[in-house]
Write a structure and sequence with these properties.
The protein is mainly alpha-helical and 73 residues long. It contains two helices and no strands. The protein has a domain of 47 residues.
Length: 73
Amino acid sequence: MKKLFEGLPWWVTWVAVPVIAIAVFGGMIASAIGFLFWLLFKVLVFVALVGGLVYLVRKFTSSSSSSDHRDRW
């Protein structure tokens, strides 16, 4: 690979080749990044929901310390 770019100007290696790669694979790269953001959003929603559930359960179980109140559940 090094011999392929040996006699060419610097801008071919550092400008033209990345621009061509983005033009060819840009849609695939954008899809992969979009999928990662979607997955991150879903993970954050899951963590928030589980955290809220744990908070509510602990709040209600700690406030009902009497056995009288616990029997109603």
